[in-house]
Design goal:
The chain has six helices and ten strands; from the N terminus they run αααααββββββββββα. It has 244 residues and is an alpha+beta fold. It has two domains: 132 residues; 104 residues, Acid Proteases (Cathepsin D, subunit A, domain 1).
């Protein structure tokens, strides 16, 4: 393979991997950042011209990957960054392993690789989304109200709910407002969706017990006028992130 062909192929592969990553993790980023990160990935061509031992090679590739993630997605905190980096390598290994298998088995010729990459990555995204649904995390939740009553609910952990109330940095879990009477001290918390920005009515319970995760005192309860299907308490995904 010529150098120019390698550069083009490497750029396209990196572009597809990063787009798959942000699609799975539901991350918003600008296309220009993705393009710049793919250009950074072109530095891997150096490995074709220099004889590196395996440790230098791995370190060099790791440094490039770190820059790709930081430029394309950004850096918020170390936990999120490591998670994004791990997903990046999982997707890369899946794509690389699949292409190597297809090539070794003579199923496809190398020059036709570009036509199969989008198909492979869409299959990966399909099974990833379905696996997340199959392994959706469900928990028994007990909410201890300030009037002495206890709500026993069925909670579902959702990566889409990472709402933090800004006053005391408590994690907001969401339930239907029919469960609560007007005898709590409520306050409003701003939240954003794809379509708009609004306010959600919240209150602080005495405590919350989540089966398998223990007692929590860092949780606020958000109320919405919506009926969930299959559960009645939408848990905050940052509760799980605290355990990592």
């Amino acid at each position: 393979m010529y150098v120019d062909e390698y550069l083009i192929l490497n750029f396209i592969i990196d572009y597809i991997i990063i787009n798959t990553l942000i699609s799975i993790l539901k991350i918003n980023t600008k296309k220009i950042k993705i393009i710049i990160s793919c250009l950074i990935g072109e530095l891997s061509i150096i490995t074709l011209f220099f004889d590196m031992n395996e440790y230098i090679f791995i370190l060099f590739k790791l440094i490039i990957s770190i820059f790709i993630i930081i430029i394309s997605i950004g850096f918020n905190d170390i936990k999120t960054f490591i998670k994004n980096l791990v997903y990046f390598y999982i997707i890369s290994f899946f794509l690389g392993g699949t292409l190597t298998y297809l090539k070794n088995e003579s199923i496809i010729k190398y020059k036709y690789v570009l036509f199969f990459i989008p198909i492979i990555m869409n299959i990966y995204k399909y099974f990833t989304y379905n696996l997340k649904n199959i392994l959706s995390l469900n928990y028994k939740v007990s909410i201890y109200l300030n009037n002495g009553k206890i709500l026993y609910l069925n909670g579902k952990m959702d990566s889409g709910n990472t709402l933090i109330e800004p006053y005391s940095n408590k994690k907001v879990i969401i339930i239907n407002n029919k469960h609560i009477k007007e005898d709590e001290k409520f306050y409003l918390v701003p939240y954003s969706t794809i379509d708009n920005t609004s306010l959600i009515k919240c209150f602080n319970p005495k405590k919350v017990y989540i089966d398998g995760l223990g007692e929590r005192n860092d949780i606020s309860i958000g109320l919405i006028n919506k009926k969930f299907i299959g559960f009645n308490c939408l848990l905050n995904y940052k509760i799980l992130e605290d355990l990592w």
